[in-house]
Amino acid sequence: MSPTALDPVAGHHDSFSLPVANGNGGVKVHATARRTPEGGLIKVESDSTKYEEEGIRAKYTDRGADVVKGADGKFTVKKTEKNYEFFTKSNVGKVGLMLVGLGGNNGTTVLATHLANKHQISWRTKDGLQQPNYIGSVVRASTVRLGVDPETGKDVFVPISDMLPMVHPNDFVIGGWDISGVEMVQAMLRAKVLEWDLQRQLIPHMQGVKPLPSIYYPDFIAANQADRADNLIPGDDKQSHLEHIRNDIRQFKADNDLDSVVVLWTANTERYADIIEGVNDTSDNLLKSIKESHEEVSPSTLFAVASILEGVPFINGSPQNTFVPGCIELAEKHQTFIGGDDFKSGQTKVKSVLAEFLVNAGIKPLSISSYNHLGNNDGKNLSSHRQFRSKEISKSSVVDDMVAANHVLYKTASELTAESGEVTKKGEHPDHIVVIKHVPAVGDSKRAIDEYYSELLMGGRNVMNIFNECEDSLLATPLIFDLAILAELLTRVQYKSLDNGDGEYKPLYSILSLLSYMLKAPLVKPGTDVVNSLNRQRNALEQFLKACLGLEHTNDLLLDTRIW
């Protein structure tokens, strides 16, 4: 049984319902946990936006530019317009969230945060009474500029959660799997993330709850995890394991009377799987390899395939290459949603902002050196070289697109080839190293140290050092809620082209690149460029939510303040 199914929430299961009485003396709800007023906070008055009983229908014009470089090196720019209609179903329904790694630091913190907010459990710290909240969630704790108040001329901002009908995190039904059979109370105590007074009050809500058995293939995670692996689906038959996971998803959905489910991997980082022709390069080959229990089919890929075949979104929160080519092709065939890879919570998020700032300021980073140490089980697993290599790859690519965007500072591959006479596939790039060490004493409190060494005017040099100390799971948990909330929302959004005469609505493309803001190594549609710029990722998400309301993206031109 899922832990939150023990005490189902009454009433509607979406953010457009009224708060349920909590029986806790009318304790004030934190702003990040408030519910949207019934009927929604926003109503767009426009011929292009229609509110219907089933949902919101909105027309949107996507404006862009085609740029062609001539033989003389000059550019010709042609403005483009593509017209679409979006339909967003307004009925959220009852949503399940299944975590792979439920008994880990992230999983226990997700469940504890959900229960504390749902039951309005406050706790004492040395600084006083602490209120439960969803601080750190982009969806719940950040705002979007909606427009301007015509009377005051002031900008109007609204929470992202109020833009469209979204599931409230209090309403998730949470369950999942773990290779460790420790009950959730002991798992929470083992994690040592939350204050004791909060843990003490959560114990009655978690008592007797245990994760479902999971898949354990020792070759994919560090050997030091073997002592935790006591809650396993029996046998070595990967086809049998696949069917077991699929049945778990179906059973969880049926037992809890759910309308939809999101599956999210927050378990150990795996080693990279080898991409082998005939094994995992196509969907048919991947399914065949699962039947044959091929050694290069990882646990995370099995969970992804199970989710795809069950028609539920699967999000990978770790850095390994879960989505081998065959897995992506399978998602495309079934038009099921996938997203990844690797939660972007601390050091990498700061790096994507600072590197973009330096390059856009015309300053040339020559090297970026990143060092981390942490003491939780994630750090322990990453102390193994093959698992660390997965993390190193996801962390190292974060500045690539920002560097490639500035060919004034950084020479292109063709320029380097012309200079050296040797074929160069990659353009000039800062030296970039990543180090991660396991230091048990610091627990979940991660230390991240970065040095940015850059070139300035007339051969000058600049060194910037950043020291960041943070609670790893308290940064990752809000991202897990965000990823699940947005993934569920995107299952209810359909579109059609008005230029091509499409009669039927289609679902969005299978790879949910709109989730990139929360992920270190964003998975994107094959053949398209990865965008790592945090600012561009955030703008894309905001613009899409506005497009679903038929609104133009509000830019910072502020033309009326710059003309007579």
Automatic annotation (TrEMBL):
InterPro entries per the UniProt record, alphabetical: Myo-inos-1-P_Synthase, Myo-inos-1-P_Synthase_GAPDH, NAD(P)-bd_dom_sf
A cellular-component GO term for this protein: cytoplasm
Molecular-function GO terms, alphabetical: inositol-3-phosphate synthase activity
KW Cell inner membrane (keyword) present: no
Keyword Iron-sulfur: no
EC numbers for this chain: 5.5.1.4
Location(s) in or outside the cell: Cytoplasm
Cofactor(s) recorded in Swiss-Prot or TrEMBL: NAD(+)
EC main group: isomerase
Subunit structure, interactors included: Homotetramer.
Protein name as catalogued: Inositol-3-phosphate synthase
Organism this protein belongs to: Kwoniella dejecticola CBS 10117
Lineage of producing organism: Eukaryota, Fungi, Dikarya, Basidiomycota, Agaricomycotina
